[in-house]
Specification:
23% of the residues lie in helices and 32% in strands. The chain is an alpha+beta fold. The strands form two sheets. A six-stranded antiparallel sheet has the order 3-4-1-6-7-8. β7 (104-110) and β8 (117-121) form a beta hairpin. The chain is globular and about 45 Å long.
Amino acid sequence: MANHYERFTSNSPAVSDIDDLKEVLAEWRFSHPARDVSAEVSHGELRLCGQCGFIPHRKSEIDHPDERFDMQDNEGFLKSIEPFLEEDLIIHQIGHAKIRYPFNASLYMVNAETGETKVEHIHERQQAFLSEDNAD
């Protein structure tokens, strides 16, 4: 059986109200507690990265780590940090089995000006591309 590996990382947008943002970040967990995940604010910038998938969920909503996939709330997390963003936030996630080609990729974005959140998955892009080719 192949092992599944995922990683995520973000750009480093400038943020405001750093102490309040740290309190909001403390309310969230991003994966199994044993995974290497970093959600930190330093020098006025937010940085998110992890050696796992981007699977945020509120700490108060989970009793057991295996329930994390059922409690996933990407949009809720992105909306909770949006008021602190002075620049757009972009999070890239990629996953693969063993060292093979990537089989899943996602892009999470928050527009700092409008507060709009956007989530794209690579399979959705592939389906749209294939649909355009078949339309000709």
